[in-house]
From TrEMBL:
TM ranges: 59-82, 94-117, 138-163, 183-207, 214-235, 259-284
Residue stretches of biased makeup (Basic and acidic residues): 14-28
Transmembrane helix among keywords: yes
Keywords: Membrane, Transmembrane, Transmembrane helix
Protein name: ABC transporter permease
Length: 289
């Protein structure tokens, strides 16, 4: 009688079968370190990509961001195209990308859910069981989330820009990607939305609670600018360093004295993410699950 040796399913195989992601043409063992059950970094990245694309929240939040950016571009630019007189300093590029100020909420919430969802479901224990050093899991989440978000938001920003300029062409208010600052603004829109998502992810890793992390994020990007706006004029310079204002800097073509330079805005936003992710990394390695 012929017998066939079977190999017990390892922890990676079990998780992949649970999510229906095991592939016979590329066994999950290819992503394990030799002689151990621990995932290699490539395996961790593959796992995070599988989890991100299988979440319903990924589809709904990113779809909402796309609709908001393009939809508000159509609304703002169509409204301006029907006005009798445009303002002398009308910024066509800014109007076509202004949807980012609502889209940032959807992208930020997805960033939070990318990690707090695992804490809420208890799946984080299985994840860290496969990645006991923990930090590779965090960096893999950051890489996958940033790559997916930036790619989709960049494509969406291009669409919003082109649609908006098409609507403004009837009044000769349109610009092209070849005009000074236009391409930079389109890329800056995608960059800013990715940054907001990473702030949400870092906040979720720090707080480990969806409602708390989402509330904190909304407080920073929506409530804080209003609070600063009520401060005495001598203190309102703080506004230039708030994330939402920095995002405005990246998509604004017409120079404004109260805004930082584009390079400074990129540096400050990057600094915020680096600091929060560093804090998240420290807490992840020191706290129990």
């Amino acid at each position: 009688m012929n017998t066939r040796a079977t190999t017990p399913a390892g922890p990676v195989d079990g998780v992949e079968r649970l999510h229906g992601t095991a592939r016979p043409d590329r066994p999950s063992r290819a992503h394990r370190a030799a002689g151990t059950g621990e995932l290699t970094f490539l395996g961790v990245v593959h796992s995070e990509w599988t989890k991100l694309r299988s979440l319903r929240s990924t589809v709904w939040t990113l779809a909402s961001a796309v609709v908001l950016i393009v939809g508000l571009s159509v609304m703002f630019c169509a409204t301006e195209a029907h006005e009798t007189d445009a303002e002398p300093a009308f910024d066509s590029t800014f109007f076509s990308l202004a949807g980012l100020f609502l889209a940032q909420v959807a992208v930020g919430v997805l960033g939070v859910l990318t990690i707090t969802g695992e804490y809420a479901s208890g799946m984080i224990r299985a994840t860290l069981g496969l990645v006991p050093r923990r930090l590779p899991m965090l960096w893999a989440k950051v890489m996958v989330f940033a790559a997916v978000t930036f790619t989709l938001m960049l494509a969406t920003s291009f669409v919003a820009f082109l649609v908006g300029q098409r609507l403004l062409a009837g009044k000769d208010l349109d610009v092209t990607l070849g005009d000074p600052g236009s391409l930079r603004a389109v890329v800056g829109c995608a960059f800013y939305l990715t940054i907001v998502g990473l702030l949400g992810l870092a906040g979720g890793a720090l707080l480990r609670h969806t409602a708390g992390a989402v509330s904190a994020l909304l407080g920073v990007v929506l409530a804080l600018p209003m609070i600063v706006g009520m401060l005495p004029a001598s203190l309102q310079r703080i506004d230039a360093y708030l994330p939402t204002t920095l995002g405005e800097t990246l998509v604004t073509i017409q120079p404004r004295e109260e805004l930082l330079s584009v390079g400074s805005a990129v540096a400050v936003l990057t600094g915020y993410v680096v600091v929060l992710l560093a804090a998240a990394a420290v807490t992840l390695t020191r706290r129990d699950v």
